[in-house]
Amino acid sequence: MLTHDSASAQLRWAIEHLAWERSRWSKIIWSNECLVERSTGKRPSYIFCTLQQKWDKDKIDTYKKDKGHTVMVWASFSGALGASDLVVMKRDKEAPKGGYSVKSYIKVLEDQIL
Fold it and tell me: How many independent structural domains does the chain possess?
């Protein structure tokens, strides 16, 4: 989330690096990760009632809406190296709920950058 403080810090950083030449920027590797989720989404619901009845509890069909399938992906780019492949990160079996952790991120950096 972009807060006032983080926006100010980013602006300061940009101003400090404004004079960098292209050759210096080409040595920087930019990377990021993103959680991608495929969920069940909305399902069709058919209700036959009057407008006044639409919120009656017996007319509402509830169902469990879980997250579905999630994966974390990572990629990078630089002036010198170009774009990396899009990498599906490995889950950390020791992490809470078997999700992603610092270990997952370090592993992808070791495999792709180093």
Answer: 1
